[in-house]
Write a structure and sequence with these properties.
Mean pLDDT of chain B: 95
Number of domains of chain A: 1
Shape of chain A: globular
Keywords (chain B): Lyase
CATH topology of chain A: Rossmann fold
Strand order of the largest sheet of chain A: 1-7-3-2-4-5-6
CATH superfamily of the domain at 147-217 and 347-535 in chain B: Diol/glycerol dehydratase, large subunit
Oligomer: heterodimer
CATH topology of the domain at 147-217 and 347-535 in chain B: TIM Barrel
Structural class of chain B: alpha/beta
Radius of gyration of chain A: 15 Å
Enzyme class (chain B): lyase
GO molecular function (chain B): cobalamin binding; propanediol dehydratase activity
Distance between the termini of chain A: 23 Å
Domain Diol/glycerol dehydratase large subunit (chain B): 15-565
Number of helices of chain B: 24
Mean pLDDT of chain A: 91
Strand order of the largest sheet of chain B: 6-5-4-11
CATH architecture of the domain at 147-217 and 347-535 in chain B: Alpha-Beta Barrel
Low-confidence stretches of chain A: 1-10
Number of strands of chain B: 13
CATH superfamily of chain A: B12-dependent dehydatase associated subunit
Distance between the termini of chain B: 71 Å
CATH class of chain A: Alpha Beta
InterPro entries (chain B): Cbl-dep_enz_cat, Diol/glycerol_deHase_lsu_sf, Diol/glycerol_deHydtase_lsu
Largest sheet of chain B: 4 strands, parallel
CATH class of the domain at 147-217 and 347-535 in chain B: Alpha Beta
Largest sheet of chain A: 7 strands, mixed
Chain lengths: 196, 567
């Protein structure tokens, strides 16, 4: 398992191209999971998280996790907010299955469901510095299982009490920069091209 | 450009001084530090964008506050102007010099009551100006005089990484022996919340009667648990100093006020939470300093009418701590809270530094003066189990903390405990929860789990539970409408009569509501100790809270100290 993880890290894609293909519509397919990225994710700024994980690699892993469960990932960008909960809930409401994953540039992630309150997601991963690529894959997999109506065991989280002293101020700067890209526009559908 | 490159080149090639290499590996250098960036609000105190103090009152209505006319107020300004100032005296108080007000705070000959009166007529910018006149020693002097309840106390965190209720019940009971008066939990998986509330209730009341408990989860769930008598206070109702930050939280000052009333009207103690750095963390600081925005939160809380506030940066602490004068700003926000006659649960509750020196220095600011709740909270579990992402002190620091209390003759809220007493109370609490689970039809707690919980350092020593089953049972428990009284019955029927009585007492407290008074905690015999019957009357040496008598005996009597016969 850990060997496999290492291989994934080594082969991780570093680059991708994101292409906007119109307004994101309400999905009619119950076997999709929507992944919603925050305004600066993937093609603005540094294109990597606080830890330096390429955004492309993260998306690839989340896609893979969803596909392992034989469901379909659909990528959108939410423009109106840099707030993870609102991005996630907006996306869940557009998702055919009602399940969505939202992710910020710094790497913070959650799994949301359309009937929940904004700040009560199914699973929240508030400590981005503790997420590695295998965790992102697992998040994709769990989201897909929720979409199928299953109750997966939550993705295990490591709790590093020293994460805040090291990262919080830097995380704030990431978020301030992300918020600069917010605009009052509707979510857009994204086509992604992963490059090796 | 060329010069820069050359400089960078020289830097990498320069021969390293060995002392700097050693310094770089010190714990403190794992912390994050930033330079000020005032344009976005990355500044602890005194941003160039902070307004100048001013007030205009026409026909009893504030028409201008801090340079802004009423038409330009955002909802936070509006709320403060309507509800947080005493318009009858505001112009008079605003006319006082900031430095004069700062001196009144420090002066032992000026009463607490007089300072409260002055502060009732100050605007946010004026209060910021007052704080700017004070250094940390003066602020500590102020806190000593201004905190509302005379007797200091302490709140604890009880959490674990697997949300394991068996470990939680034992940890809560142990915390009771150490003297915590409030216990707070939160979850990795929110849907576990009902089981955590049960564990904290049963464990807390096994450790010592009268501990009040809360389940810090999403607001609707938290309220529901309180209404059912499974928790007895709430504090994670967050307020912010800008409208933008409020919107991010899907809220307004009015919605928070409504929520506060929902708790209080059902006999649940309630305080708000805020803290320096929260707005800038949400990219909504509008270029204002962290302290200025936090002062608005304190005033907003006062205006809402809640009895208290948890602040001291709280979960944003890494941000002010990265700034010059940041920890001073954190102390200032606690002081402002007390000057508004609110209970202060003064932070120290989140890890902010790798350095034991920085951690201690930061905590002494509240520990030495004493506050209503010096920590909000102290991690009663190892930090690897702390689901608030780590506290400034954890259970592995207990002896250090107890000895600092003894060294300085300071009451930090904790007392030394006997190891075998701890073992016994952990075991009893776990058995009590086993009985409650059985009676309420929740997933079984095995004897093996009880044994593990009795001696566990933390979750590493606990057998795993079936989480999916637990979560389903938790949802079912809420659907079935289980309440605190069901817990009383279950305990009673299984021979845990003392714990049953304590849980019943907690239900009665909710009906009488006396513990809704400012700064209220409950003594082990369920007597309310609050700012009404134990008001801080500090006026210099020989007054106020004094650590003496039986309490001092207890705190001095640490297990490590040898007597003549031991040598």
């Amino acid at each position: 398992m850990s060997d496999e993880g290492t291989n994934q890290q080594q082969q991780a894609v570093e680059e991708m191209e994101l292409e906007e293909v119109g307004e994101a519509e309400l999905g009619d397919s119950s076997d999709e999971v929507v992944i919603a990225v925050a305004p600066a994710f993937g093609d603005q700024g540094k294109k990597q998280t606080m830890l330096g994980i390429p955004h492309a690699a993260i998306l690839r892993e989340i896609f893979a996790g969803i596909e392992e469960e034989e469901l379909k990932p659909r990528l959108i960008r939410v423009w109106r907010s840099a707030d993870l909960a609102f991005i996630g809930l907006d996306a869940a409401k557009l998702s055919g299955s009602g399940i969505a994953i939202s992710i910020q540039s710094r790497g913070t992630t959650l799994i949301h469901q359309r009937d929940l309150l904004p700040l009560t997601p199914l699973e929240l991963f508030p400590q981005a510095p503790n997420l590695d690529l295998s965790a992102y894959r697992h998040i994709g997999k769990n989201a897909a299982q929720y979409a199928k109506g299953d109750s997966p065991s939550p993705v295990p989280q490591t709790n590093d009490p020293m994460s805040r002293p090291m990262w919080q101020a830097i995380a704030a700067v990431f978020h301030i920069r992300e918020a600069e890209f917010v605009k009052q526009e509707k979510p857009v559908e994204l086509k992604v091209n992963f490059e090796k | 450009m060329q010069a820069e490159e050359r400089e960078a080149g020289n830097k990498t090639e320069a021969k390293r001084h060995k002392r700097f290499e050693v310094l770089e590996n010190r714990e403190v250098n794992k912390d994050g530090f930033l330079k000020e960036w005032p344009e976005v609000g990355l500044i602890a105190m005194g941003s160039p964008e902070d307004p100048e103090p001013s007030i205009k009152i026409e026909d009893g209505v504030i028409t201008e506050m801090d340079g802004k006319s009423r038409d330009d107020f955002d909802p936070v300004d509006d709320f403060i102007a309507r509800y947080a100032l005493n318009n009858d005296i505001a112009e008079e108080m605003m006319a006082l010099d900031a430095v004069e007000i700062a001196r009144m705070i420090v002066d032992i000959n000026v009463t607490r009551t007089r300072v409260l009166e002055v502060f009732s007529g100050l605007t946010p910018a004026k209060i910021a100006a007052v704080m700017d006149c004070m250094d940390v020693v003066e602020m500590m002097m102020g806190l000593r005089k201004m905190h509302a309840r005379r007797t200091p106390s302490i709140q604890g965190h009880v959490t674990n990484v697997h949300d394991n209720p068996v470990q939680m019940v034992a940890d809560a009971a142990e915390a009771g022996l150490y003297g915590f008066s409030e216990l707070e939990t939160t979850l990795g998986v929110v849907r576990y919340a009902p089981l955590a509330a049960l564990a904290l209730l049963v464990g807390g009341q096994t450790g010592r009667g009268g501990i009040i408990t809360q389940d810090a989860v999403e607001e609707a769930t938290e309220l529901q648990l309180g209404l059912r008598g499974l928790t007895s206070y709430a504090e994670t109702v967050s307020v912010y100093g800008t409208d933008g930050a409020f919107r991010d939280g899907d809220d307004t000052p009015w919605s928070k006020a409504f929520l506060a009333s929902a708790y209080a009207s059902r006999g649940i103690k309630m305080r708000f939470t805020s803290g320096t750095g929260a707005e800038v963390q949400m990219a909504s600081a509008e270029g204002k300093s962290m302290l200025y925005l936090e002062i608005k939160c304190v005033m907003l809380s006062k205006g809402v009418g809640v009895q208290g506030l948890q602040n001291g940066s709280i979960s944003a602490i890494g941000i002010p701590a990265s700034m010059p004068s940041g920890i001073r700003a954190v102390l200032a926000e606690n002081l402002v809270t007390t000057c508004m006659d609110l209970e202060v649960a003064s932070g120290n509750d989140q890890s902010f530094s790798h350095s034991p020196y920085r951690r201690t220095a930061r905590t002494l600011m509240q520990m030495l003066p004493g506050t209503d709740l010096i920590f909000s909270g102290y991690s009663t579990v190892p930090n690897y189990d702390n689901m608030f992402a780590g506290s400034n002190f954890d259970c592995d620091d207990h002896d250090d903390y107890l000895i600092i209390q003894r060294d300085l003759k300071i009451d930090g809220g904790l007392v030394p405990v006997d190891e075998q007493d701890v073992v016994a109370v952990r075991n009893k609490a776990a058995q009590a929860l086993q009985a409650v689970f059985e009676e309420l039809g929740l997933p079984q707690i095995t004897d093996e789990e009880i044994e593990a919980a009795t001696y566990a350092h933390g979750s590493k020593d606990m057998p795993e539970r079936d989480k999916v089953q637990d979560i389903e049972a938790a949802e079912d428990m809420m659907e079935r409408g289980v309440t605190g009284l069901d817990v009383v019955k279950a305990l009673g029927e299984h021979g845990f009569e003392d714990v049953a009585n304590n849980v019943l007492e907690m239900q009665k407290q909710r009906v009488s509501g006396d513990y809704l008074h400012t700064s209220a905690i409950l003594s082990p015999d369920f007597k309310v100790v609050a700012a009404v019957n134990d008001v801080n009357d500090y006026q210099g040496p020989g007054t106020g809270y004094r650590l003496e008598g039986e309490r001092w005996e207890k705190i001095s009597n640490i297990r490590q100290a040898l007597g003549p016969d031991d040598i």
